[in-house]
Amino acid sequence: MAQKVLRNVTHCIFDMDGLLLDTERIYEEVTRQIAGSYGRQYTEATRFRLMGTTDQRSAEIAIDECQLPLTVGEYLKRYHKLCHERMQNVPLLKGAERLLRHLHANKVPFALATSSGAEMVELKTRKHRELFDLFNHRVCGSSDKEVKNGKPAPDIFLIAADRFADKPIPANCLVFEDSPNGVTAGESAGMQVVMVPDPRLAPERCSHATQILRSLEEFKPELFGLPPFKN
Q1: Based on the number of CB atoms within 10 Å of its own CB, is 72 exposed (0-12), middle (13-18) or buried (19 or more)?
Q2: Phi and psi dihedrals of 141, rounded to 5?
Q3: Average pLDDT, integer, range 14-39
Q4: For residues 50 and 107, what is the distance between their CA atoms, to the nearest angstrom?
């Protein structure tokens, strides 16, 4: 596969789950528990299809593909209850804090664009509030009225870009994602996308990313015209 040309950027937009916070494994456990309570399987293929989508869309996919005898409302009530029990002390993933603090110290504007709702974001980031307060702003796809269509649609990233004070064009924004749906959303928005995928994802599911890393520790800001790390 040909090496992709990397363009200089001025702003960064981050997904949260599975990229900054180690939450995807919790979502997987919760969905598998719900499916298992009805004797249903929660397959890897289904998991990757719902990754990065809004709560509503995730519920629809899980109910349909796992053949669950639940309405979306019933599923989400149970799902949120189980998530609340497990999301109190979510750890950061490798390289996340270093990168965020580096961007902030160098006055590179960055925003959060997550499919989670605002209430769930508060819960998951409680242990790391000071770090997440460094973000210029947050767009929470499951509760933000402006986000009409969730990932893989580009809405959330276009809205995140528009809410920066200087309103950068999409080409000047660099997206960080972990899911194929998120990468498609960023690409559709006209942005470059750095992907840190689940190692179980097939390579062809990641091929549309601008750059693929094993963790944020591997990110080299200078490749995108951003200030390099000093150590």
Answers
A1: middle
A2: -60, -35
A3: 95
A4: 34
Peptide bond into 152 cis (omega under 30): yes
Let me know if 15 is a catalytic residue.
yes
Active-site residue (options: 15, 55, 144, 155): 15
Q: Report how far residue 138's alpha carbon sits from residue 112's, in angstroms, rounded to the nearest whole number.
A: 5
> For the chain, what is the radius of gyration of the CA atoms?
17
- First-to-last C-alpha distance (Å) of the chain: 31
What whole-number distance in Å separates Cα of residue 159 and Cα of residue 156?
5
Reading the block at residue 142, the tokens are 């499951």
Q: Which of 106, 99, 101, 95 is nearest to 10 (CA)?
A: 106
Nearest of 54, 8, 38, 43 to residue 179 by alpha carbon? 54
The active-site residue out of 17, 55, 144, 178 is: 17
Closest C-alpha among 159, 192, 195 to residue 177: 195
Q: Write the pLDDT tens digit of every residue in 140-198.
A: 999 999 999 999 999 999 999 999 999 999 999 999 999 999 999 999 999 999 999 99
What stretch of H or E contains 125?
Answer: helix 118-125
Q: What pTM does this model have?
A: 0.92
pLDDT score for 52: 84
DSSP 177: E
Q: Judge residue 168's burial from the number of C-beta atoms within 10 Å of its C-beta, 0-12 exposed, 13-18 middle, 19 or more buried.
A: middle
162 is catalytic: no
pLDDT tens digits along 22-34: 998 899 999 999 9
